[in-house]
Design goal:
This protein is mainly alpha-helical and about 325 residues long. The protein has helices spanning about 5-15, 25-35, 40-55, 60-80, 95, 100-120, 125-150, 160-185, 190-215, 220, 225-230, 235-245, 245-255, 260-275, 280-300, 305-320; strands spanning about 85-90, 90. A hairpin with a 2-residue loop joins strand 1 and strand 2. The relative contact order is 0.11.
């Protein structure tokens, strides 16, 4: 089994050698720019890792792996527009560097290019693979819309939040593994277990991200601590506070949520998080989903030693986020 860094080199080489088109220049340049911003490339690496799990030549999965990464970056281009985000990985977002119409069109084209890349997969199960990809793409869009709907609601439940992050973030990890497994020749049941493994790991990753936004080290985390609090984002932490806060503290909480001084708001909400042990609650939820993920991995009908790389990758990524 190849490890993460070895597979990442394959992915980066494929990205560097791939041309998406050239004319008109201002339509295609943003795609090259976005794909060149880097990142962990977790999703395409998982695609290759799942294929490698079954001893298949990973070159047969390289186009599908890149398709997953291009699709992921397409969602980021459009998310940045919807979030009015000026920076992505420390660089100007596409709509800021060019303009919004170009970002929308280039994003649309990335979705088309993702399907083109997927279609280059030389596999008799291609239509099954395409079905998984398209179903996941629809779910990611659903999750983004649900997340936006949450902005105007104060009655979001834990269950609704988990469903949203599963759609918006986690299903693409599951999809990456399932596609790789199908290309590798896995039984459908194994591919489904790997999908569940990836999905539950994705939920755990997002909960960890929520925790770090409030309790992490800003320099290590790579963004400002308390950003979710400042924007009143409905995270698992804020939802739990809203559900458990005593009536004596509810007025204080509402005042803090309406506070215009961001530093004061962050400090006030963090004090309430400490008082109601919100971090401990979120940590337990994260552990619950990690447990579910590894239970699904255990069900994959292949020798335990071959699954070790996947298990270690998940644990190392979680540790790096800590």
């Amino acid at each position: 089994m190849l490890n993460y860094s070895e597979l990442l080199k394959r992915i980066n080489a494929k990205i560097a050698s791939t041309s998406y088109g050239s004319n008109p220049k201002n339509l295609y340049e943003p795609i090259d720019y976005m794909m060149g911003l880097g990142g962990k490339r977790l999703r395409p690496v998982l695609t290759l890792m799942a294929c490698d799990l079954y001893g298949k030549n990973i070159d047969e999965a390289i186009n599908a792996a890149l398709a997953v990464e291009v699709f992921h970056n397409f969602t980021l281009v459009h998310d940045d527009i919807m979030d009015n985000a000026p920076l992505r990985r420390g660089k100007e977002t596409v709509y800021k560097k060019w303009d919004m119409p170009i970002a929308i069109l280039s994003g649309d084209l990335m979705m088309i290019k993702a399907v083109e890349l997927l279609a280059k997969t030389p596999n008799p199960r291609f239509y099954q693979i395409l079905e998984v990809f398209n179903d996941t793409a629809a779910k990611v869009c659903e999750g983004q819309q649900i997340d936006m709907n949450f902005e105007t609601r104060n009655d979001v439940t834990h269950h609704e939040y988990i469903d949203m992050i599963a759609l918006k973030t986690a299903v693409l990890l599951g999809c990456s593994l399932k596609i790789g497994a199908l290309i590798g020749g896995a039984e459908t049941s194994d591919a489904d277990h790997l999908y569940a493994f990836g999905k539950n790991m994705g939920i755990a990753f997002q909960i960890q991200d929520d925790i770090l936004d409030s309790f992490g080290d800003g320099a290590q985390f790579g963004k400002r601590i308390g950003g979710d609090i400042a924007s009143n984002k409905k995270t698992l932490l804020l939802i739990e506070l809203m559900e458990t806060v005593h009536k004596d503290d509810k007025i204080l909480m509402n005042n803090m949520l309406n506070e215009t001084n961001e530093n004061k708001k962050i400090e006030g909400i963090l004090k309430l998080y400490d008082k109601y042990q919100i971090k401990q609650f979120a940590e337990q939820k994260k552990q619950d989903y990690l447990k579910k993920a590894f239970e699904s991995l255990q069900l994959v009908n292949i020798e335990t030693t071959r699954k070790k790389t996947l298990e270690q990758t998940a644990l190392e990524l979680m540790e790096r986020m800590s």
